[in-house]
Design brief:
The complex is a heterotrimer of chains A (about 280), B (about 260) and C (about 270). Chain A has two domains: about 120 residues, Rossmann fold, CATH 3.40.50; about 80 residues, no CATH class. Chain A has twelve helices and ten strands. In chain A, the strands form two sheets. Chain A has a six-stranded mixed sheet, with helices on both faces. In chain A, helix 6 runs parallel beside helix 7. Chain B has two domains: about 150 residues, no CATH class; about 70 residues, no CATH class. Chain C is an alpha/beta fold and about 270 residues long. Chain C folds into two domains: about 230 residues, P-loop containing nucleotide triphosphate hydrolases (Rossmann fold, 3-Layer(aba) Sandwich); about 40 residues, no CATH class. In chain C, a hairpin with a 2-residue loop joins strand 4 and strand 5. In chain C, helix 3 packs parallel to helix 5. The chains are: A alpha/beta (about 280), B mainly alpha (about 260), C alpha/beta (about 270). Chains in contact: A-B, A-C, B-C. At the A-B interface, helix 2, helix 3, helix 4, helix 5 and helix 6 of A face helix 7 and helix 9 of B.
């Protein structure tokens, strides 16, 4: 059984004119790193919300079809129940920090669910250690940079021990260095067996780590596959999704009759592939 | 606004900071009641002299001093006007006493607010059986008030850049000028509130009847000590106030 | 022409944000200001239209010290579009939102109306004139906020983080719009973290760190300087990275490439004939 399964799922927000998601079919297995991308308003955020039950429990609307997460139907399970399977990280770091120090912030989720104090303390220490937050321990959110805030928000989400981390454009308000650090952290978590669903439009930064890329447009899934396949399809240009420069170059060369053996996703990959071709 | 600093939590490690917030609440209320029980200079000076060591023990004397300095203009104002307008037999002494009482009252409460972390405060309220949602709303307010302030400034800048002149024109125009500030502020606040709610919901807020605390507040012997001493002092003071005539030296007034 | 002479500024007199910034902005330029958060970029642009006044140093507009002008007066010359459109929008319709800015600057009814229509058309917002800004998408709101500043036809247009939250297509639109405005003679200045957006659209880059300008010059040379990239919390764009990786293997590939066309040529040359 898949960890996440969208079965013919459609959703329209209360008071909206059009569907936010249209007949979405999507299966995500344990251990995958799925990048979801598409133009503004394509339904990426709604898809994330549907994974932990915010849609339809918190954001009401019209639903068709089902979303099954780890065997639980999101129509019937509470967000709190689903939070222990799917942890959401949002775009605005500041709005996710609701207490005034890092320890309490991480403890907030497990405390809400009534986890025993010793266990909460253990999780807090483990996450502070794992995400390198020791120097921020007593800091007030106002005293942290956006990147640090987002790191804490991730720790706070992970404290619920979810099986999948769903991150909705977690780096769009950060400077490039901090963004890189957060994305590296997500890739690192995936290597430690965490399933990851990441919404991101800067594919040059994430496609090298992803196991799968899903393209969305107007509430529909329009492509789904390995990064190298999806990013070379013409659909990306059609809907206006920016692909990595190395991949763009691959496509240009192909048009000129030069076919590289594999599709490069990064600068280093491009150089290695060109070297390989040259050697022959 | 620097005088408000004295009501703002400061991160310190002191004897007072380590006390249970509930014990501190009792202590602060007792101190406030005592300050309110007297209106002559000598007893208030004595109370004042007892409060200073407490503030010092909380390692916050400097901050307290800064606040008082910020407040000094207002205090002098109160003394002057009260003296001029009062009908008491010795207006100056009475105004001075009033001002002393105000300072003592502020200081009593500041002992609490200076040393209780807002998160701890909500936790204390909850453990005192205050409804969880209510208590948490309070600590959230403290958390986001500075954010709101920053947002208000950003909005003012954005409108000024569009040619809104906030401090020009007659009263009516000035009032009308508030609209371009208030409307965006309300809208961004609602948006923010929604986004915060979403994030809290995703972390199980309000899910369990039996919410736990990583560091449950524990009443230690020193906390009981503080409560018992506070109540004892309160009882003695009340007794003296009600049944004993204050000696003449305690009622001493300035000769003018 | 705008001239900043050794500008110092500290918030509340305590938190130093600018420590001796000197900068010349000529008419008709396209300039990007880059740097990490807290480097002083936003503080710098707020000095251009008088929202902030220097503690020390001068800001000079066409030979006159700006301390003689009010913010409203400067705003006629220097338009500033803030990062969050929600901080400006408050009226019932998009059209009234734009008329409001024009009213503030004292244009006549007819003139306002005409300018409003022209701006809406220029930005492709004519269909939204009667809509409420609050029902629009984030990208659309951003364009309305831009329109409300643009309608006053300032000579200098400065934008704080215009690309945040915009997808690739919206970014392209923004870029072509800015270059059109620039061709009409407007000076365009952006504050941004988006290094690819800068490389593709802005010939000059000012890099800031800790309230100082650490580099100022042609974008290509500023942004291929590893030290600047490091100081400003930037990351090397993939194209530059690809060029450097290729250069390490094939010395005839130039080390500094910023255009995809050039990289393509370089790779074709390397592979020669294949």
């Amino acid at each position: 059984m898949s960890l996440i399964e969208f079965a013919d799922f459609s959703f329209k927000y209360l008071g909206a004119d059009s569907l936010a998601l249209r007949k979405v079919d999507l299966k995500i297995e344990e251990g995958e790193y799925v990048v979801i991308t598409g133009p503004s308003g394509c339904g990426k955020t709604t898809l994330c919300r549907a994974i932990n039950g915010l849609v339809p429990q918190f954001h009401r609307g019209y639903i068709a079809g089902n979303v099954i997460v780890d065997g639980k139907n999101t129509r019937e399970s509470s967000v709190a129940e689903l939070a222990q399977i799917a942890g959401l990280v949002f775009q605005q770091p500041e709005n996710q920090l609701v207490t005034l120090n890092v320890e309490r912030e991480i403890a907030f989720g497990p405390e809400n669910l009534g986890v025993a104090p010793e266990e909460v303390r253990r999780r807090v220490e483990e996450l502070i250690d794992m995400l390198d937050l020791d120097h921020l321990r007593d800091k007030h959110p106002h005293e942290m940079s956006g990147g640090e805030q987002q790191r804490v928000a991730m720790a706070a989400t992970l404290a619920l021990k979810p099986k999948v981390l769903v991150a909705d454009e977690p780096t769009s308000n950060l400077d490039p260095k901090s963004a890189e650090a957060i994305l590296n952290l997500i890739a690192e978590l995936n290597k430690r067996d965490m399933t990851v669903v990441l919404v991101e439009h800067r594919l040059d930064l994430v496609s090298k780590d992803a196991s799968r890329v899903v393209l969305m447009d107007k509430g529909r899934l329009i492509a789904d596959g390995a990064p190298r396949d999806v990013l070379t399809s013409d659909l990306c240009q059609e809907i206006g999704v920016g692909i990595p420069k190395a991949t763009q170059l691959y496509k240009r060369l192909k048009k000129r009759g030069i076919t590289l053996d594999t599709v490069p996703l990064t600068g280093a990959e491009l150089a290695a592939i060109v070297q390989e071709v040259k050697r022959r | 606004m620097s005088f408000l600093e004295v009501f703002q939590y400061t991160r310190q490690d002191s004897v007072i900071h380590r006390l249970d917030p509930r014990a501190k609440l009792v202590m602060s209320i007792v101190l406030a009641i005592i300050s309110l029980s007297f209106l002559s200079i000598v007893p208030l000076l004595i109370i004042f002299c007892c409060l200073i060591p407490i503030i010092a023990a909380a390692k916050s004397l400097r901050r307290w001093g800064r606040s008082m300095k910020g407040l000094s203009v207002l205090l002098i104002f109160i003394i002057v006007f009260n003296t001029l307008l009062s009908t008491a037999t010795n207006p100056f002494s009475q105004s001075l006493a009033l001002t002393l009482r105000l300072i003592a009252l502020m200081t009593s409460f500041s002992v609490f607010f200076l040393t209780v972390h807002p998160d701890e405060l909500s936790q204390a309220l909850i453990q005192m059986r205050v409804k969880f949602e209510f208590a948490f709303a309070m600590s959230m307010a403290m958390r986001y008030v500075p954010t709101l302030g920053r947002e208000a400034y950003a909005i003012m800048d954005a409108q000024k850049a569009r040619g809104v002149e906030l401090d020009k024109g007659n009263l009516l125009k000035r009032i009308r000028n508030i609209v371009p500030i208030i409307v965006p502020l309300i809208i961004v606040s609602i948006r923010r509130a929604l986004s915060i709610a979403e994030s809290m919901e995703s972390r199980g807020f309000g899910a369990s009847e039996h919410r736990t605390y990583m560091n449950p507040l524990k009443f230690r012997s020193r906390d009981w000590g503080v409560v018992i001493v506070s109540l004892l002092v309160l009882a003695i003071i009340m007794y003296t106030r009600l049944f004993i005539q204050l000696p003449p030296w305690a009622l001493w007034q300035l000769p003018i | 022409m705008i001239l900043l002479e050794d500008v110092h500024f500290a918030y509340d007199g305590l938190y130093t944000a600018l420590q001796g910034v000197s900068l010349q902005i000529d008419d008709g330029e396209r300039i990007a200001v880059m740097g990490s958060n807290g480097a002083g970029k936003t503080t710098l642009v707020k000095h251009l239209n008088g929202l902030l006044r220097p503690d020390r140093g001068r800001v000079i507009l066409d030979g006159v010290d700006t301390k003689h002008y009010s913010v409203a007066e400067l705003s006629r010359e220097i338009g500033l579009v803030m990062q969050n459109p929600d901080h400006q929008l408050f009226l019932e319709t998009v059209e009234r939102e734009i008329l409001f800015s024009l009213d503030n600057l004292g244009y006549s009814k007819e003139e306002s109306k005409e300018r409003c229509m022209r701006t809406l058309n220029d930005l492709g917002l004519e269909g939204l004139a009667e809509r409420s800004p609050f029902t629009l998408s984030g990208g659309e709101r951003k364009r309305v906020a831009l329109a409300s500043v643009l309608a006053t036809e300032p000579r200098v247009l400065s934008l704080d983080e215009p690309t945040i939250g915009q997808d690739a297509r919206q970014k392209d639109k923004l870029a072509s719009m800015l270059s059109e405005l620039n061709e009409k003679g407007k000076t365009v200045l952006v504050v941004t973290h988006d290094i690819e957006f800068v490389i593709e659209n802005f010939p000059r880059t000012v890099a800031m760190a800790d309230g100082r300008i650490v580099a100022d010059g042609p974008t290509n040379s500023v942004l291929s300087n590893t030290e600047v990239i490091e100081k400003c919390s930037l990351t090397r764009p993939q194209l530059t990275d690809a060029a450097m990786c290729l250069h390490a293997i094939f010395s005839d590939v130039p080390q500094r490439i910023t255009l995809l066309d050039d990289l393509e040529e370089a790779v074709v040359n390397v592979l020669g004939g294949t």
